[in-house]
Write a structure and sequence with these properties.
This protein is α+β, with helices and mostly antiparallel strands. 21% of the residues lie in helices and 30% in strands.
């Protein structure tokens, strides 16, 4: 029986070293993905806005940051909406609990500030009803976006967003 040559021994040693490095790389990658998964399930996540209703296309949504003031962005669930069913939307807070909503000729105001015009029909010709005038109740928010075609709280069908629907505060990234 012959002894393995030095080059065969070196090749075998290199292969074992490669296997060890590959195993280490795969373990580190698995731990990184586990950490990212834990982070996204408990702290927040990156979301992509696919509409043109907001000036930003990417947001970081924090699950733990409280909603405290107007003009913050939020991600929330719709509730069996006639147009969208149940899905997540990102909009800007335009009215807080205790703020006053006033509707005049389909123009909507929050505390006297114009926040949008409620169109009479959707882009598909479906009749739209504006939100009613009144005071925003506790734990509810008026959400909106700037474009005239934005579907937001100006319409009774979407209406005010209950804090239980809010996924988290959305921070614009770009």
């Amino acid at each position: 029986m012959t002894e393995p040559s030095a080059s065969a021994y070196s090749a075998e040693k290199s292969f074992v070293l490669f296997q060890n490095k590959l195993a280490l790389f795969l373990m580190i990658t698995a731990l990184a993905f586990a950490g990212i998964n834990w982070w996204s399930m408990t702290q927040g996540r990156i979301v992509h806005n696919v509409t043109h209703s907001l000036p930003f296309s990417m947001f970081y949504v924090s699950y733990k940051t409280p909603i405290t003031e107007q003009y913050q962005y939020v991600e929330f669930w719709t509730q069996n909406d006639q147009f969208f069913g149940t899905l997540k939307l990102t909009k800007q807070i335009k009215g807080l609990p205790g703020d006053v909503i006033k509707v005049e000729n389909r123009n909507v105001y929050v505390n006297g500030h114009f926040v949008g015009h409620a169109k009479p029909f959707s882009q598909k010709g479906i009749p739209l009803t504006p939100i009613q005038s009144g005071v925003i109740p506790p734990h509810h928010y008026y959400v909106a976006a700037e474009p005239a075609d934005s579907y937001d709280s100006r319409y009774a069908n979407l209406g005010l967003v209950d804090e239980k629907q809010i996924v988290g505060r959305a921070y614009p990234l770009f």
